[in-house]
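Task 17 of the worksheet. Students: predict the tertiary structure of the chain below and write it out as structure tokens. Keep your answer in the requested format; marks are given for formatting as well as content.
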Amino acid sequence: MDLAEGWKDLARDEQLTLFQLLGIRRAVVVFEELEVEEQAFLLQAMGDQATGQMVGELPPGEVAHLLRKLPRRVVRRLSNLVKLEEAQRLQQVFAYPPKTAGALMHTGVIRLKESMSASQALELIRAVSRTHIHEEGLLSNLYVVNGNGMLVGSVSLQTLVAAPHDSLVKELMFSARVTRVVATADQEEAAQVVSKYNLLSAPVVDEGNRLVGVLLMDDVLDVIRQEASEDIAMMVGTRPEEFLRQTPTRIVWFRLPWLVTTIIGEFAVSVVIKHFHATLQQIVALASFFPLIAAMGGNVGAQSATVVVRGLATGEVRPEEWRRVGLLELKVGLLLGVAYGAVVGGFAHLLYGHHLGWPFSAVVGLGMVTSMSVASAMGSLEPFVFKRFGIDPATATGPLITTITDLVSTSTYLALATAILL
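Model answer:
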């Protein structure tokens, strides 16, 4: 692990020499921790014999995951080096689109029949384990199928070892209905199932409920990290690729679309301000509170959106709960608005109260209340709207929230000023 962390500090020829000096087992461990670009370099630099030996030592399913990330020319070379059995597994995994549970699953799963006794099940496990290297987690939970290969339950290895030899597997198993994952499900949904029930592994089934593979906790952790990177990037209007080494031109291309959305929205704000030009001419002091009201609304909107996006991502918040969540965040925004509105209104009175009076202070305070209330409600509801239309909800916490909040708060603030002060 420490060797992998310092790998980038070595020159390419030093990396290759060091890797070749490692024993095959240790080389595999280091290889799995390296970045995709470094893995591709090693696979291209090593001879076919050394590459084939190392690929043969990789755990079942790991080769499929590796090939999805590598350049095509490397994939073609590796495909010719894997064994026939592994090639068949690769075809099964590649049949599913990327970022689905099927694309992540490990197909080397032991299938126990419900009619087996505990001793027969253990004998099958021993026989399979003698000829196949199984990753940690594949044997933590074992899955039971009926005569048609359909998933009917799960049983732990510990339960089988402790049970009387003549106990039937169907008497020892638990239902796997809740923890199963459909192979075509999005990888984020699959990660939510494993995370929610704190599983080391989860069965993957096809549309007919036939057991086709297993999803491991290690795979889920990779998905969670990947999705977190995507969400963080989208919250600020960019892409996760920017976190890697990219050229300035490429980074500009990532950021440009959402910044265009922002500037269009702010053009609309300028139109609103122009519409209330007469009000601003008469009461110039109104302009001094524009940045404060807009900033507070944008901040509370982003807070609400971030909380809801996280809840939807972890499964703690369900899409059908949009009314409850929206009402809750509206109340929160209203309370925050009243508190800050009183403070800002009092401050406005200290600055301008001697010649503009309490009505001006009330406008500033009510503008703050309206801005924070509306922003909080919008920030909580927009992720649900995005989710409904199949768009990643993290997009809602980007520049869009701030832009719409500016538009609403500016319109309300100036409309109140026109109605009350003129």
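Marker's comment: The chain has a mean pLDDT of 79. The chain has 19 helices and six strands.
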